Amino acid sequence: MGAECCNKDCLKPSVVSYGVVAWLSSGAALGVGIWMLVEKSTYNSLLDSLFYPATIYILIAAGTFGFIFAVFGCAGAMTDSRCMLALFWITSFVAFAALGSTGFLALYYHDNVLRKDINIRQAINESETNKDLMTVIDKLQTEFRCCGERGASDWHKLPESCCPEEPTGTCDFARAHGKGCEGSLETWVRENVFRAGWIALGLSLVQVLGLILTCCQYKALHDWNKKVS
Known about the structure:
Elements: H1 8-39, H2 51-79, H3 82-117, H4 120-126, H5 131-144, H6 182-228
């Protein structure tokens, strides 16, 4: 019974079904990556390294790659094409490696690097000549009701975003928000990179099933071709 279920006709529905699952999971990775790029990349310029944005871009790249090439798994199984199955196996392995490494690196960044990566003070110093950076800092301080990296003392001249919104009065140290933004930004990045890391790891495990099924189907086709030749 076990041998019968390892032939090409028995494995074909499984490989086709997995191809659909791979297409959907790759689409999910692509969708999450695009969502994070649009909605969760606001404060990338306040981080020293490119680790966090790189996680998002790899998630998008792996999702796009898998989404496009998942069709080869279905087509290869339905047409008994070993060439398509081999291509599908290679692309599944690439997606597995990219997603798995991204997941582990994201969680490593989350636990060991993130706290040292935040550098709001440097951004404050550069904001005098960089209006885009000043806009990001203003948004951060307004959204989280904070001021500077560790407090208002990080500023020489307080921007309006350091103080509560009031109809009258200018922002001064007496009215400034009492907390710095370091903790709020760290929490924000930590939540997002944790989410991206586990999504990447989960989707990489989906690829493992595809690697096994595709390999079995390829071998079954190889054995069948030897019998009929």
